[in-house]
Design a protein that fits this description.
alpha+beta, 5-stranded antiparallel β-sheet, 15 helices, 16% strand, globular
Length: 357
Amino acid sequence: MVFLDDNAAYEKWLSGQCNVVEADLARKHERMSKSPFLFLRATYFRWAKRIEGLCPNLADAPAVLAVGDAHLGNFGTWRDAEGRLVWGVNDFDDAAIMPYPFDLVRLCVSVRLSRGMAIKKADAAEAILEGYKSGLDDHRPALLDGREAWLRPFLAAGEMERRKFWKEIDDLPAGEPDKDVREGFAKALPEGAANLCFRAATKGGGSLGRPRFIATAEWRGGRIAREGKALVPSGWQWAHGKKSTRLHFLECATGAYRSPDPFLAVHGDNLFRRLSPDSRKLDMDQAVPAGLEALFLSAMGFELGSVHAADRKKDQIRPHLDALSKDWLHKAAKTAAQDVEKDFAAWVIAHPVDKKE
């Protein structure tokens, strides 16, 4: 099936999972025409349907609870239960049981399609893979107050980032969440929160089109914020015709070798999290300093290794990994990236970019 047909089928399915925000879906379509990287972020469902056929030698690899939508834009920071600053994958919307290599391939493809990563493609694959192996062997969360302190100067929010964070929220339009979402916010906010205000948020890549709201309030002398967004089954389940509605978001986010956000919670069909200058998504397509790409990619690979290491099949990964050719990730990423670019070209023909933007 060509991409345009798959996209229409997925969006029809999505409309049966949540109350789709049509204006946000239109915004998603516009973003998909801007670059192959943004297109990749918006189309995990298509990736999930194609990747086994594109990389058949990886399809029989040990299946573990994986991120699914692993890419440069899916990392961020948060504060754990001890107040420590943590960095890592911060979105598990598409978490599912799948062959472990596909997380690595997708991250590597996102580097190939990125405009902000000045690193040779083969070197990027090598850095990700070496980090992944280290994560399997020495799995742990990336604590920016601990062993990963070297990351802190690049990721910690300064005064400008803090001002920008609140300005972006204040610029959002007012929103009217339904009863279930309001109840979820009531549980997510601390007792005594006052001057509650709801805003409609248009954020994300693949999740654009799903209802998303931000609640702000005053609490004990300062402003606080929470985000609530609709959860739907992983695109992996859609691609494989699975009717199960089981969500793996929290299972993956709170894995054994992560130090999770204590404010992350599911109420009904919605996910709620704390937002702050220290608890936010970071666009690693743009934020990695020149010359440090290999170090950051290794850290991302390490994070994926730590996520996979929490699975009961973790002992099966290393023997399979060691049996693969030295350049398997580089070759697989090249094949998958070419397929994404082909879909992107077809999409742009049908949805050309508005040159006036």
